[in-house]
Design a protein that fits this description.
mainly alpha; globular; Double Clp-N motif; 0% strand; single chain; 183 residues
């Protein structure tokens, strides 16, 4: 299926990996695919989102808010724990903090796709087939995010006030304007 991806869809998947890593996730979910699609410059998804009066940052903020994998740096402080003080005391005692030793170095390998991400890619393929298109672009990824109601990606779009019909119209209008770039 990946050989059918346009450049903007490939870039969206790469950016989804980055979004998942940034969130501290051990997998790529549908919400990360949504972030990847809309943050790819000049992609069909980004241009369609703009038609709806939204910015990629709107999506990124909501995905971060919904993420259960992200570490809430303010949570320890809310119960009276000063992480900086703990880190300093641990460094003074052992020379290295145990907090740092639990952090994993950035990985260069791909994170696995979770079930929602796999389903999103499958639905994107079906959307391309439905439109009798040979390639899958980030617009198809948007369609899939809007259709799969049990995903965080769908929750984000809903919270932003994006209806599946409005999204479909925006993507079709974007396609009419011309391609996002080389396929």
């Amino acid at each position: 299926m990946h050989e059918r991806f346009t450049t903007d869809a490939r870039e969206a998947v790469i950016r989804a990996q980055e979004a998942a890593r940034t969130a501290g996730s051990d997998h790529v979910g549908a919400e990360h695919l949504l972030v990847g699609a809309v943050t790819t410059p000049d992609s069909v998804a980004a241009r369609s989102l703009s038609r709806l009066g939204l910015r990629p940052g709107d999506v990124v903020v909501l995905v971060r808010h919904l993420s259960t994998h992200a570490f809430d740096a303010e949570a320890p402080a809310s119960v009276g724990v000063d992480l900086d003080a703990v880190r300093a005391q641990t460094e003074a005692t052992s020379g290295r903090t145990s907090l740092d030793s639990t952090r994993t170095p950035p990985r260069r390998t791909s994170l696995p796709l979770d079930a929602t991400a796999k389903q999103t890619l499958e639905v994107a393929l079906r959307e391309a087939q439905r439109f009798k298109q040979r390639h899958i672009d980030s617009g198809h990824l948007l369609f899939a995010c809007a259709r799969l109601e049990d995903t965080r990606a769908h929750q984000v779009l809903t919270r932003l006030g994006v209806s599946p019909q409005g999204l479909r119209q925006a993507v079709i209008a974007t396609w009419a304007d011309g391609p996002a770039g080389p396929t």
